[in-house]
Amino acid sequence: MSKPKSPRKVGEKEALSVGTQIRGSAQKLGLVAALIRNKPVGDAMNILAFSTRAMAVDARKVLASAIANAENNHNLDVDALVVSEASVGKSIVMKRFATRGRGKSTRILKPFSRLRIVVREQQEEEA
User: Fold this and answer.
1) Domains defined along the chain, listed by start
2) Contact 52, 91 (CB under 8 A)
């Protein structure tokens, strides 16, 4: 008696990777995610590698994980993969305090974000 197998969270020709605790705001990570949506994975990796935004480093790690999941776990063709979904959400927020003048203090919020990347095997249409 074992636990029943959980259903797949994505389609048959898709692979998923989630970065759960990426340090930075969801707004900044959303700008990076918008750069790679609906792009082939080779182009998306190059865009993230040469992007000047700091969040691109973590996004590139999550994308590389999604590509590896597609290749190793689902036997998909890496050359035909396309980033079908790149969604961003909020995660935890660390709360810190900074001392200020006259015995006061100020709250500092250090947000974390979640990045969910789904890659899909795209069939090339022949013209």
Assistant:
1) 14-121 (3.90.470.10)
2) no
pTM of the model: 0.91
DSSP-assigned states of every residue in the chain: --PPPPPPSS-TTEEEEEEEEEES-HHHHHHHHHHHTTSBHHHHHHHHHS---THHHHHHHHHHHHHHHHHHTS---GGGEEEEEEEEEEEEEEEEEEE-GGG-EEEEEEEEEEEEEEEEEPPPPP-
Residues 79-117 have pLDDT tens digits of: 999 999 999 999 999 999 999 999 999 999 999 999 999
